[in-house]
Amino acid sequence: MSSKxxxxxxxxxxxxxxxxxxxxxxxxxxxxxxxxxxxxxEHVAAFPDINPVAPLHVLIVSxxxxxxxxxxxxxxxxxxxxxxxAAKHTLRTSEFDTYRLVSNVGxxxxxxxxxxxxxxxxxxxxxxxxxxxxPSEENS
Length: 140
What we know:
By secondary structure, this protein is of the alpha+beta class. It has a single domain (about 25-125), classed as 2-Layer Sandwich (HIT family, subunit A). The chain is built from two helices and seven strands. The chain has helices at about 25-30, 75-90; strands at about 10, 20, 40, 45-50, 55-60, 100, 115-120. A five-stranded antiparallel beta sheet has the order 3-4-5-7-6. A two-stranded antiparallel sheet has the order 1-2. Residues about 1-15 have low confidence and may be disordered.
């Protein structure tokens, strides 16, 4: 058991992947909420964000409780493939063909819920997330 896993974690159906009893994304991914899923595989679930920041804002969450992308390694390749399958499916059923797919890591990185998730955003223009599109201080 990971040092980041609380004693309240429960092993799901004999799998080694853990689900947290008090995690809202674990509840949604496991079907223990009223949230309607828009896409689902063995590894991920997708659903609309309740506080959208773009005309299309879907969350793609891992079904296994993984705190953030910082915990991913090569063993998660199928999960990551499913993240992109969820994005592709969602975009195919929308009017958008350009998008941003982002996963925040840690509180300083903007992560609010400590469960691996990706924001699929489309329908508006996004600035450069690296900040290179901002005017430099010497030019302002």
